[in-house]
Structure formats: C-alpha cells, structure tokens
Amino acid sequence: IFSPAMQRTVPIQLLVPTGYNINDAATTYPELYQLDGLRADPNITDWSRKADTQAFFADKRVLVVQVIGGYASFFQDWETQDAGILNQSKQNVLSPAGQLKWESFLTGELPGVIGSVFHGNGTRAVSGLSMGGTSAFSLAAKHPALYKAAASYSGYLDSQAPGMPEFLHYVLAEQSGASNADDMWGPPTDPAWTANNPTAQIANLKGISLYMSAGTGGNGPYDQPLGFFGLSASYVGAILEVIANYSSQSFAQRAVAGGIAVTTDLGNPGIHDWPYWSGEYKKSWPQLAAALHVANPGFVVQGAIAIKWNLLGGAKGVLGQPTSNEIAIAGGAVSHFTGGDIYWSPSTGAHEVQGLNLAKYNEMGGPSGFLGFPLTDETDTPTKPGKYNHFANGDIYFSPSTGSHEVHGLILEEWARQGWENSRFGFPVSDEFAIPNGRQSNFQAGFIRFVNGQIIGS
User: Fold this and answer.
1) How far apart are CA 345 and CA 424, in angstroms?
2) Measuring CA to CA, which of 185, 197, 230, 381 is 20 to 30 A from 366?
3) Which residues are catalytic?
4) Is residue 162 classed as helix, strand or coil in its secondary structure?
5) How many whole angstroms separate alpha carbon 268 and alpha carbon 219?
6) Is the pLDDT of residue 36 over 90?
C-alpha cells in the first residue's frame, strides 16, 4: 500500500476468513490490527513467522491486518527523521528510505484502504507485542474513536515511569541504531513524551476494551532454567520482561485510580519471547472478539492446557484448532481439538492423546476409567514403528500392524521387565481380558498371564 505520509510503499499481510471473497462487497468484516516488536523485519511480519496466526484466525470472521516493518519505530510520527532507523527499515538496498510517519499511516491512511478495498466495516481493535504493545495503547489513546479494543503483550505502557525514559533511550540508541534517540519524541522534557505515553493519556482509553499481559521474568514453562533462584537462562529476555511488567503495573495502578477498566495478566512466570505472546494473543481473543462483535469467535483454550497446546505448535501444530472450551471431568479438565485431546489434572499436569490411542482411551472410559489421566504425550517407540501413552494406571501402545491396545497392572510390569515391545513378546495385540482364575494379555509372539497369583509368560 503506497503511503503519502511514509513516502514509500508499505507491505501489509492481510489474513482473511475462510470463504472470503474480495468481489463480495456486501459482506463486511471487523478489523484486528497486529503490530510487531522492536526487531520488526522489513519483509515479513513476525506474527506470521513466529506465531500461528494464519491457522488460528482461519475460521474467525475478522480481517487480521498485520503490518510489515516498523523496525524500532514504536509506530510513531518521529519529530526528526532518523537516518539510522530509516536505514534499518529498508526492504532492500535499493528501496527508498521514506519517512517515519507510522502513526499517520496507521490511523489516517491504512484504515480507509482496508475498508474500501478489503471490506472492513470500521469496527477495529489494535494489538501488539513489546514495542507494538506500547504502540497499541498509545494509538488507541490518541485516536479513541478509531478503536473498540486494544491489547498489549509485554508492552511498555508507562514510558515516563522512573527509569523508563533512560531505558527507551538505551533501546533506541544502543540497541536499535538510532542516530539520535531524541529524534522520536525529543528529550524527556518534550511534551511529545506525555502525548504518546498511554499512562499519561489513560483518560482517553475509557470505554475501550483493554487487555494487557506481561510475565514476571522468572523461569516459565517455555524457558530453559538457569538452575537457581527460579531464573531463566535467557537473562536478557528476563530483564526485558521485568521492565515490561513494571511499566504495565504502573499503567494498571493508574487505571484503577482513574476508574478505567482493564483486563490484566501480570502474575505468571515467563520472559520476553514469542512462545508467551503466541499464547497471550489467543487468551485475549475472546475479549477482543466481543468488542469487535465477531460472531462465533471460536473456543477458549486456557491455563496449563493452553501452554501444552502452544508447546505442540498451537493451531498449526499436530492438534490443530480447538473444538471445545475447557470441560471439567473426573477431577481435572479436557479440551478437544481437531487432531486430539489435551487432558489435565493437578497431579499429572497437561498431556495430549491422539489418533487410535485416543480412540482406545475413550473406549476404556477416558480419565473416568481405570487408566486415569495421561502421564505423557503420545510418544514414538524408540526402535520400532509405534506410539504409546503412559497413564496413571496403565499404558496404551500402538503399532501399524497391531493397532492400539492397553496393558496394565502386573502384566504390564512383567512386559516392561522383559523389555517392552523390544522383548520376545513384541507389541500387544489385545487388551487385558479375564481367563479362569486370572487375567491375560496377548502379544505378537505370545501371551502374559496372571493366574492363581503367579505371572506366566509364553
């Protein structure tokens, strides 16, 4: 899209819902704008490269506008055009540098194109991570008539809190290559700092549906532990998240004092990194969808089940899209997906079961049956083609030639002692069944029985 304000063409990635037809002008859609972080690539959005937004939004009735570029710009109209930032923003060496007029483009030029060409209906939300989270709240505060909702994931929402001006100057000058950090808003005494500070302009956000999240900086479920004090091995990411949390807490306190409603998620461990943002945008979606009046916004995945889902690739992973909300079951919970289920209980944590192992598990009564909750995800058998899940009270094993069967109790113990599927018995070919005076499981090359208090293998 050519931007007169930016004096260059700005690439945009637009995610459209299933069944979208650009020639159908009668059908219009609400709009969700997603802004990248500080290291925004000039040729691809990180929302595409590092999150599963295409898969997640495919069945949602919304246009997702992913802005490409904006390296270290905070998506602002800079007071002075900075050669260092402009040079980092070029798509290639021959591209024009243009101007740092992101706010003018995002609020004055882009919405009209989305509406007139792509059938946006003018009901908008804006969201972003890190730098983009700061921008989402700042743009909403400066242009409240444009947005029904705003979401910040690890954003710096009080740019004038003690130490924050110095931090942002360091980020721009030392980390991002700005020729002069004052080129964006001038020195910290410049009124532009107050004009662009979401916390200072918080009164303008009243009536806008607000969501913000930031981790504590402690070692979280997606991090490599440092080994002591609950810290992550990624100390830079931890420090950045601590600062984001501090700034977001400052915004939250001002919001409470000013009677501004905001949904906060600020107490979970985790660092400044994409696995967390990939989870947070999904967690915020129901609130954004409500503000956008999206019909059938989809199902909510939450808590430990959401963490497991994201670890498995989220909507573009093996499990695909959710097909249910979280359901309470047998002292725990389950969420159903197109490719399988994730079960959780306080004692076993969250684990997925899929395919024929899931069918067998359901046949055996699921977590309400004698197997109980899963202890592992579905796992490949190490030396032969096959898969297994361990459960609280037994196992289910699958191979292409035998299908899925359960093994439990003393028969499972004997099979394990013999070497599992690598033993002379091979994979199970039956579930355990009753025989006179005992129980039996059949295997590819024999059986194991428990008869009259004794284990017999043959």
Assistant:
1) 35
2) 381
3) 130, 241
4) coil
5) 10
6) yes
